[in-house]
């Protein structure tokens, strides 16, 4: 039995080699093609190299913004509750969804992302008690709180993966109607006594603001 001395190259290798040969030939005949954009390069018969993985820029990594952290620290200096400090991170998350940086599956998910950011940034927002939320969400909150208090650095690789997944979601979670529905449903779960105490507290802080003016 005779074996052929020439071994066929894989298709991917042939296509890359052919692409390089066409590019080099076109650039030799037309040196200005190296500065042309992709659309004009295709007209000259040259195609740019296939897209490869590009690490995300610092702006694409979903770290809390400096002004958000500054607002949370100001709230802490003023003696405001940890939930108020965490509200700054939820507010930032809603702004990101409205700006189109990423989406969210629901308003609850967007709020949970903001609270997780707050815990990872060191806000002393305790995880929910057992039975209040699902066990998976409680363990996630415990992990974020523990790492935030220890000062563990946020993984940029996981942050990029999170943003990539959230970009596939919609942007209705941060609409006024969605936020209003979430507020009403949360209000009904709290009970009349808690709603009354929250209203009294809001009236007190409002009068303090007016006195400062």
- The helix/strand class is mainly alpha
Number of helices: 9
Arithmetic mean of pLDDT = 77
Unreliable runs, pLDDT <50, ≥5 residues?
1-16, 46-61
The 3D shape can be described as elongated
Question: What layout of secondary structure does this protein have?
Answer:
Elements: H1 11-29, H2 38-43, H3 66-77, H4 82-99, H5 107-120, H6 135-150, H7 156-166, H8 176-190, H9 192-212
Helix pairs in contact: 3-4, 4-5, 5-6
Quick rundown:
Helix content is 62%, strand content 0%.
Structure in words:
- This protein has 213 residues and is an all-alpha fold.
- Among the domains are: 33 residues, no CATH class; 107 residues, no CATH class.
- Helices cover 62% and strands 0% of the residues.
- The protein has nine helices and no strands.
- Helix 4 packs across helix 5.
- The chain is elongated.
- The relative contact order is 0.08.
- The N terminus is likely disordered.
Keywords, separated by commas or semicolons:
single chain, 213 residues, mainly alpha, 9 helices, elongated, disordered N terminus
């Amino acid at each position: 039995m005779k074996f052929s001395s020439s071994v066929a190259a894989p298709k991917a290798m042939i296509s890359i080699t052919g692409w390089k040969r066409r590019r080099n030939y076109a650039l030799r005949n037309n040196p200005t093609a190296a500065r042309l954009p992709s659309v004009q390069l295709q007209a000259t018969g040259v195609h740019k190299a296939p897209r490869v993985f590009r690490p995300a820029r610092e702006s694409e990594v979903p770290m809390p913004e400096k002004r958000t952290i500054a607002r949370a620290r100001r709230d802490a200096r003023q003696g405001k509750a940890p939930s108020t400090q965490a509200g700054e991170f939820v507010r930032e998350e809603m702004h990101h969804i409205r700006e189109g940086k990423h989406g969210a599956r629901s308003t609850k998910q967007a709020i949970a992302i903001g609270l997780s950011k707050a815990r990872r940034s060191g806000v002393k927002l305790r995880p929910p008690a057992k039975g209040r939320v699902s066990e998976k969400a409680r363990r996630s909150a415990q992990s974020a709180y523990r790492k935030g208090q220890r000062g563990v650095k946020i993984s940029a690789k996981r942050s990029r993966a999170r943003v990539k997944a959230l970009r596939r979601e919609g942007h209705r979670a941060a609409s006024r109607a969605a936020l209003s529905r979430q507020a009403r449903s949360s209000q009904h779960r709290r009970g009349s006594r808690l709603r009354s105490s929250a209203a009294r507290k809001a009236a007190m802080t409002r009068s303090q603001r007016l006195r400062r003016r």
